[in-house]
Write a structure and sequence with these properties.
Elements: H1 2-22, H2 30-34, E1 39-45, E2 58-76, E3 82-92, E4 98-99, E5 113-120, E6 126-132, E7 142-145, E8 156-159, E9 168-170, E10 180-182, E11 184-186, E12 193-200, E13 213-221, E14 232-238, E15 261-267, E16 274-281, E17 286-290, E18 303-309, E19 325-327, E20 329-337
Antiparallel strand pairs: 1-2, 2-3, 2-4, 2-5, 5-6, 7-20, 8-12, 9-10, 11-19, 12-18, 13-16, 13-20, 14-15, 14-18, 15-17
Length: 344
């Protein structure tokens, strides 16, 4: 019996050693952990002259000796628009890392030259390239207003009668195209609302849910110097089936009355310089008035109201606003389905 035990022990030790020696290695390789970074193949583009209006895409390729955090930055030399793409890998594959002409932050790209930079986290070297946009991309969605033809014929515009009111189309600083809607003025009374624009909508063909239906719009501020205190854009969406403008004695559309089904969202505060592009899912809108079933149904939306509001300077509310122009200009207002416009 003792002889068998002595025989089995070295046999078990041998088997155990074999099992340990053939076990697969888990975790990052020693090269990824401690090896010096090296570029195997530098940055290359599948095309340097994309026409995004024709559906072109730019693919990017590069190869490294280990997995790294990398960032690709494309910047328009005329527009200043920026597109950022990032990842963690040992290679950029053009079938996976590609650009369709969209932007990460407005303004949008134009037909222009662009710089391309590929940087690696904690590494000093930058890989560079150039490209020229021959045609800009078209965004898919349901247009509300881009003001290229002026104020839409069916729109209703109202503003308070005070200093420097600018509820009209302007051309000095558009987000896209040649025109935008300048919306603001001097806050010299004890009310929050400076003015508004109302637009009728027919979204009966929309089938997505409120969570997958987005309102997208550009908002401009801060170009004239000081920002007004607590200035913001108040947005109302109505699902009322009433006539849009049946009562001509009102200052705005009739579908936003307090006894109708209306939902509200505020872009608040508008406290930035230049343009920002904002996307809001319909599901984020709050109930303003309970005139219906309180179920946000995109296909039932019949009108949109965009209001310029700010803390009033009268009665010591915000005296600092007495000599400051409120400015919450808008442009390129569009609904999109399933994703926000900048995520297309």
């Amino acid at each position: 019996m003792r002889t068998v035990q002595y025989f089995l022990f070295p046999l078990a030790l041998c088997i155990g050693f074999y099992a340990c020696s053939t076990e697969e290695f888990e975790g990052p390789s020693i090269v990824n952990l401690l090896g010096a970074f090296a570029v195997v193949d530098s940055l290359e583009l599948t095309t340097a002259t994309p026409d995004f209006s024709a559906g072109d895409q730019v693919g990017f390729s590069a190869t490294f000796n280990k997995d790294v955090d990398w960032t690709l930055r494309i910047e328009g030399t005329a527009s200043g628009s920026v597109k950022l793409i990032s990842g963690y890998s040992d290679a950029l594959e053009p079938s996976a890392v590609k650009w369709n002409g969209n932007t990460s932050q407005v303004p949008f790209f134009t037909t222009e030259d662009c710089t391309v930079e590929l940087t690696i986290l904690d590494e000093p070297d930058t890989m560079r390239a150039q490209l020229t946009v021959l045609g800009t991309r078209s965004y898919e969605g349901i247009p509300v207003a881009d003001f290229e033809g002026g104020i839409p014929e069916e729109a209703l515009v109202f503003h308070q009668f005070s200093q420097n009111m600018t509820f009209d189309v302007a051309q000095d600083a558009p987000l896209m195209g040649a025109n935008y809607f300048k919306m603001g003025g001097r806050m010299g009374w004890n009310e929050w609302m400076l003015g508004q624009i109302d637009l009728p909508l027919d979204l009966s063909a929309v089938t997505v849910s409120a969570e997958n239906f987005y309102l997208n719009l550009g908002v401009l501020s801060g170009l004239d110097g000081a920002l007004a205190t607590d200035q913001y854009v108040n947005i109302l969406l109505s699902e009322s089936p009433a006539a849009f403008n049946d009562d001509l004695s009102n200052n705005g559309a009739d579908v936003f009355q307090t006894d109708m089904e209306v939902y509200k969202y505020q872009i608040r505060p508008v406290d930035w310089l230049g343009w920002q592009y904002v996307s809001i899912p319909y599901s984020a809108f709050d109930v303003k008035s309970q005139g219906g079933d309180n179920v946000r149904t995109p296909a039932d939306i019949t009108g949109i109201r965009l209001q310029c509001q700010s803390c009033p300077s009268a009665n010591a509310n915000c005296p600092e606003n007495a000599d400051v122009d409120v400015r919450t200009d808008i442009d390129f207002v569009m609904f999109t389905e399933n994703s926000s416009l900048l995520d297309q």
